[in-house]
Amino acid sequence: MLLGKPYEPAAGEAPVPAASLASMRREFEFWYPVDMRVSGKDLIPNHLTMSLYNHAAVWQDDPAKYPRSIFCNGHVQVDAEKMSKSKGNFIGLLQACEKWCADATRFACADAGDGILNANFDTTIADRSILSLTAELEWARAALAGSAKDASMRPAGAAATWLDAWFANEMNRLVLAVTEVWVRAAPLHSSSCEQARARRDGGLREHAVPRRAQACVVRDAGGSRPLPLRLRRVGPRRRADAAVGRE
Fold it and tell me: Rounded to an integer, what distance in angstroms lies between the CA atom of residue 139 and that of residue 143?
């Protein structure tokens, strides 16, 4: 199944149905090769190295099956100290969201750093983020109410600008890019598996775009019509892309 070679059952072994083997082979071909293997930096000399050796041994004649990339991250610190239960500074994701809220936790995680260096979750950043988010929310409310001193809203019915078309195009592109991920990652055993099967068995078809994504299509500045979308075929697989007419 992994090598795509003829199947010959061993003596006394019940043969696996050809349809089952073909289905497993299609699913394997759909998910392989691995686009990115993500792991901790402490696993570089063992698990990650052996993963490369294993792929080279199994698919020695097919390098296309090797992992396309490997991303390593460091360990998480809290206020520049090692996070551990023994020190009492261990913070779980749910705990952080309950203490600072999800948005402030995202700010602190974004500020913590990335890559192979250790990330530092700074609780001071999380505390300040709550104040910054609160101030921004109050400013947005004042701007919408027309009472903000440094902001004014565009009058209703004003003509659309080039920036409006650019923004709508970007939103449409992101909607269909996310749709592509939904289709690819839909569980094959769920009621929404039809899109994944369509992609796996021959490409994303035009009717395979989920209705929820179609409903998210951004309308033009006047709100009178949705900006046009089209599905474009790219290479051997089809990909949903957004396109707006340039006016």
Answer: 6
